[in-house]
Each structure stands twice: as structure tokens, then as C-alpha cells.
């Protein structure tokens, strides 16, 4: 016990004394979060408009035809029952309902959107107004649309809300893998591990002590990053649902174990020290872009997303995101949990079988 | 004369690697309180022998015993009573010396006076410095400090002065002599003959994995001279190293 305590104490001290480790595990993710979060990276994609048409008269048909010519918009018909869900999940930016009594002469529309997407909704409104004016331009009339708005509030948190859990997951991966790979390899090449072997302690105690301290560090890092997201980017974690925080703890612990083991497996499996860093990068880099950190894997072709959704990082990203954004229950996240456990077992076996002290 | 107490015994020790025999049947015994030197050119098998005694490597065959404990069988027990300074090793770069010695004390479940241990090796002033800021000689002295945390019965020093400047080397000799005066048995490997002559009570000369000769340095020299060996008579009675020390002094050159 005393051995673990002194190892934990020393590992944590060294972590805070090493500026690179602080840079990569805190400064860099925060910069990325703030940079991309404020910039609104997600809005570079075409605004997505859902349409519910109750009217089906010729005038609404003409109106919609004109609308679909605007190819900078992504338009799809949705059913009335899906409106709230698609808006809350951010699948659609805004939904426009065309009432059954729609006419071009006295147009009325209902637009639903999430509060943070007011700009996009207003854009749709302006476009509708422009289209109607254009259709009616021969008459030189300028009919104002009577607008009814339905605003969903505070639920979908915009791209920031999507991004923060993604970056948190990414940081868990980076700290887990790189932390282990670089420290173990430097301890190995410098002879620190050899010196430990000359002491009466079982060297695996040292390894376990290291892993536990790193796990603590990563969980703290997770909370710090979420906290920064809450304070600076104003995201709302789990809508006040306390269970979501429990989920976040469960999944960040599991994620840390997973990536620490992957780090161990990489240090063990690489033929020599020179290979370890490139292998670590080779493994982390694709996941950074294909596991849904920055954008939803839905945009990938189906066959590819079937693969990428099973990469080690993907279940961590989606479980943290689900918990943070919607307060999803642990039971609903069981598939993610299982995928992670399978990866933990795989990495553990490879790590234990391949790790060499010298 | 009462029979001196044996603390280390090595019998027919062999260490084979795939197609290379590093140690090829070595026997020797070390008495309590002795400084025993293992001398030999690089690759002679000194370090392998020492690392088998330290429990870091398993011998292919043969028997080793320290203080009555079978090293191969009770490696952990042996590790508790020996102090080890390895030829190539390092400590945690971002821990200060006090923290390093403290950590190793816990590994040996001992509670030494850490300040005193650092003071003994002349590193008390450096206790708040990080390992990586130390000079070569200081690193070696820290290594010895760490080797002493468990108040070991036997201290292994593997090339403790390699790469040190003459001042640091002399300082190390004084330190080793002091430790011996406290009643510890010391096994030292070196390829500096001057060092062996100065420090060792007995030396074993190893070449190609075998012991060629074991005796006190004096007797070995005597034997050689008796066999009719003659050194080309030197015209001077001092060496260039004497000149160097005379000109630059004995004090350590470390910030």
C-alpha cells in the first residue's frame, strides 16, 4: 500500500513538473475546444431545413419548388412527429411547417428551431419571404409572411455542446496512450526500470502504481475540461441530471483504463523504442478524425462508419456525448460499455504478453 | 587466525546466451568486510556476474549465495540485504534527490535518515535539485546513496568511476573506503587498475567469462615480478595524472 502511495505521489508530482504533459493534456485540448467551439466549425455544413407540408395545394407546391432550387440548403421532408426530436438532436437546424390554409397572397408559416440556431431560422424566413416576393413580383405585391415560431430551448447545445465531449474523449485517449508510451519507453531506455528491478518490490507494483496515478490524472483532466466547457463555452452538462455525471465518471474511468492498456500494448509490441512513437501516432491519428470527435460519423459512408463506430475511441466519444448532452442512462449506453470492455480485454492481453522490462 | 566469515559464494557459475557464453564457470568467495574487485576488459563477463548476484539475471547453471541465501531461489530476500549501483541506470528526471531517496526507502521498507544518507555522499546541498541537473560524479554518488537506503550487508558497485574526471574519481575512492570502514562488504567492477590497486583487498581477473586469477593486488604483483617480469624502467616517479591533480587540485569541480 505504501508503495502505491509513494509511486502515485511521485507520478503526480512529475506530471505537474513536466510542462509538456500539461501542455498536451490541458492546454492543447482547451485551445482546440475554444478555437473550434467559438469559431462554429459545425456551421460550415449546409443549413439543414426540414419541411412539413400540411397544405398540398398548388401554391405551396410552387413555393416548395422554388425552395428546392436553393442548392446551398439541404432540404428534406419530415413528419410532424419527428420535429422536436430531430431539432433537439441537431440533425436538422430548423423545421418549417406549411399550414393547410397556405396561400401566396397571405402566406403564413411556422418555423421551429432551437434557440441557438435562431440565425439559421431567420435565414430560412428571409429566403421564404424572398421566394414569395419573387413569385408574386409580376403583381408588384409584397406580402409579409405571418410567422409563427416554436422555439426549443437549451436542449441541443449547438456545435459547442457536440464538440466538448468529443475533445474530452480525445484527450483521454491522448493522455492514456501517449502518457504510458513515452514514460515507459524513457524509463526503459534510461534504465529506470532496471534499477527498480534491483529493488525487492515486484516491478509490476510499479506499473500498477503508475497506471492508477495516470488514471487519476486523466479523470481529473476530464473534469477540468468539462468545467472549462461549462464556464467558457456555456455548455450545459446533462441538463442538471446528476446521473449523467455518474456516467461521465464511469466512462472516463473505463476510457482511461482502455487507453492506458493500449499504451502498454504499444510499448510492449513495438520492436524497439524508435517504433513506439510512430505506432502510437498511427493508432491515434485515424481515430481522431473517424471516431466522431469533430463531426458525426453519420456523414461517413455506411461501410466505413460500421468500422469506425467500433474503434476504441468511438464508444467513449458517443457515451460521453450522450451523457453530457442528454443525460442518457447507463443502461442505454450498455452497447458502448461492452465495446469498450472488449477492447480493454484485447489491449490488456496484448500488453501483458508483450511487455518486457528490458 | 580465525577463519574469516564468508558472505558471498559463487560456484561454477555459467551464463549462456543463444550462441555466446558470457560467463563460463566462475568460482569465488568473498569475506565479510572485504572490498572485492572484478577486473577485466570490456565484455569479459564482469557485469553479467554481478547482475546474476544482484538477482537481475538468471544463471544458466551454477550456484550463488549471499549471506547464506540462495540467490536464484530467494531473489527477493537477497535484494533486501544488498545495495546496488548499476552500470547503466537512471532515476526519475523530475524528482529531486530527496524524493528519489525517499521513494527507494519505501521500496526497501526502510526508514533511513534521508538527509544523512545524502550528506554521506556529499549531496545534502543538492537535495532539492532534479536528478537531470546533476553532473556525472554526482549521479554516481546519488546512485550510491540510493544503494545505501536499506543499510545493506553487501554493496555492488559496477564501474562506479567510469566517465568521471580525476577529481571526481578520487572523491569516489574516498567515499567507497568510508563505506567499507562502516563494515560493509563491497563488490566492485572496474577496468582502472590504479583504482583496483588502491581500493581492493582482493581482485579476480576475468577474461572471456573465466577467472584467470584471484588474489590480493600485492601478491599478484609480487608473483609477476618473481616470474621475471620487468617494466621498462621509468625515468620519472610521477605520472601525468599526478601532474594533473597537482595542478588542478583535488577539490571537486561541480557547481
Task: Note the main attributes of this structure.
heterodimer; A: 358 residues; alpha/beta; abc type-2 transporter like fold; 2 domains; 5 strands; elongated; B: 255 residues; six-stranded mixed β-sheet; four-stranded antiparallel β-sheet; 25% strand
Blueprint (SSEs and pairs):
The complex is a heterodimer of chains A (358) and B (255).
Chain A lengths: L1 H16 L1 H21 L8 E6 L4 H11 L5 E4 L5 H6 L5 E5 L9 E7 L3 H18 L10 E7 L5 H33 L1 H6 L5 H30 L9 H28 L3 H18 L11 H7 L4 H14 L7 H21 L4
Parallel strand pairs in A: 1-2, 1-3, 4-5
Antiparallel strand pairs in A: 3-4
Helix pairs in contact in A: 1-8, 2-6, 2-8, 6-8, 6-9, 6-10, 6-12, 8-9, 9-10, 9-12, 9-13, 12-13
Chain B lengths: L5 E12 L2 E12 L3 E5 L6 H8 L7 E6 L2 E2 L4 H7 E4 L11 H11 L6 H7 L15 H12 L6 E5 L7 H16 L3 E6 L2 H7 L2 E6 L2 E6 L1 H10 L13 H9 L7
Parallel strand pairs in B: 3-8, 3-9, 6-7, 7-8
Antiparallel strand pairs in B: 1-2, 1-4, 4-5, 9-10
